[in-house]
């Protein structure tokens, strides 16, 4: 399964960020999915993985609300993993166990590179927290099975479907015009005019900025039609020529003198230029619809929701 190891590692790390601490008894049922049980003990095992790889989160997890929130997210992930396994069984699809083993080893190597110096130190730490390798293996397997089902469900997505998605969502495949600017902010218009005069006489804009500006963020990028910036400021910034400065610009913050450092025009890509990306978006859409339907039709009891 080419490229699966890296994809699954991302899934594994996403799950790690959703795990929390909390006591549980082995006989307690956390959730039931179409008759299959997920126990609180299994949740605790996932929590051990989190403790192993993300010890800095231990203090945050002392907060009861945060702990409950991430625990619920973790259980949702496990419910989804159970649904994937059930669906593969229904479809009578079997993975290549040798390929999974290779993927698992690649995941372990990635974890060692990211968090531990050696394989020995990883397994020593696992032993200290009573974490068996099978728990880590099961987590990786969950991600592997999800990727396997994804590839099966989306394998029939055609180039034409990708093209239609592209035509209907062109804003996803374009880059808006942008400018890189810096500015001097002062309280009065006359101050701004004096700054412009001194710049025209040859003084450095950077030196004038350091001397006068009430705001000194350095250079920054503005995108055309970006609602996060004052629209008067944005409009003026796009009217300046490269290397030049603006006349005084009034905004709610005061008066600005804007210098343009760089400009990039809007880019609109053709389908051929972004074909792979468009196909990936379409496949994601197809799988999301498929899995949401699977989830909605499932008989799921989540016992954490009542806690």
Automatic annotation (TrEMBL):
<feature type="domain" description="PpiC">
    <location>
        <begin position="176"/>
        <end position="262"/>
    </location>
</feature>
<dbReference type="InterPro" id="IPR027304">
    <property type="entry name" value="Trigger_fact/SurA_dom_sf"/>
</dbReference>
<dbReference type="InterPro" id="IPR000297">
    <property type="entry name" value="PPIase_PpiC"/>
</dbReference>
<dbReference type="InterPro" id="IPR046357">
    <property type="entry name" value="PPIase_dom_sf"/>
</dbReference>
<keyword id="KW-0697">Rotamase</keyword>
<protein>
    <recommendedName>
        <fullName>peptidylprolyl isomerase</fullName>
        <ecNumber>5.2.1.8</ecNumber>
    </recommendedName>
</protein>
<dbReference type="Pfam" id="PF13145">
    <property type="entry name" value="Rotamase_2"/>
</dbReference>
<keyword id="KW-0413">Isomerase</keyword>
<dbReference type="Pfam" id="PF13623">
    <property type="entry name" value="SurA_N_2"/>
</dbReference>
<dbReference type="GO" id="GO:0003755">
    <property type="term" value="F:peptidyl-prolyl cis-trans isomerase activity"/>
</dbReference>
<dbReference type="InterPro" id="IPR050245">
    <property type="entry name" value="PrsA_foldase"/>
</dbReference>
<keyword id="KW-0732">Signal</keyword>
């Amino acid at each position: 399964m080419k490229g699966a190891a890296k994809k699954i590692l991302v899934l594994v790390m996403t799950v790690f960020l959703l795990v929390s601490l909390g006591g549980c008894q082995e006989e307690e049922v956390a959730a039931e999915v179409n008759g299959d049980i997920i126990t609180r003990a299994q949740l605790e095992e996932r929590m051990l993985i989190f403790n192993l790889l993300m010890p800095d989160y231990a203090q945050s997890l002392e907060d009861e609300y945060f702990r409950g929130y991430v625990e619920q997210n973790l259980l949702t992930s496990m419910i989804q993993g159970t649904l994937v396994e059930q669906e593969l069984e229904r479809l009578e699809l079997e993975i290549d166990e040798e390929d999974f083993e290779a993927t698992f080893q690649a995941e372990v190597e990635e974890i060692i590179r990211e968090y531990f110096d050696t394989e020995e130190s990883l397994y020593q730490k696992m032993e200290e927290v009573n974490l068996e390798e099978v728990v880590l293996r099961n987590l990786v397997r969950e991600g592997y099975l999800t990727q396997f089902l994804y590839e099966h469900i989306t394998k029939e997505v055609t180039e034409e479907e990708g093209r239609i998605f592209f035509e209907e969502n062109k804003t996803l495949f374009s880059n808006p015009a942008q400018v890189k600017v810096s500015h001097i902010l002062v309280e009065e218009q006359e101050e701004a005019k004096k700054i412009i005069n001194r710049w025209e006489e040859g003084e450095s804009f950077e030196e004038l900025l350091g001397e006068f500006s009430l705001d000194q963020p350095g250079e920054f990028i503005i995108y055309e039609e970006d609602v996060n910036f004052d629209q008067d400021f944005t409009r003026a910034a796009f009217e300046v020529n490269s290397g030049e400065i603006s006349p005084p610009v009034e905004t709610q913050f005061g008066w600005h003198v804007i210098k343009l450092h760089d400009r990039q025009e809007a880019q609109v890509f053709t389908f051929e230029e972004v074909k792979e990306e468009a196909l990936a978006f379409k496949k994601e859409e197809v799988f999301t619809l498929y899995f949401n339907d699977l989830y909605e039709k499932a008989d799921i009891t989540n016992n954490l929701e009542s806690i």
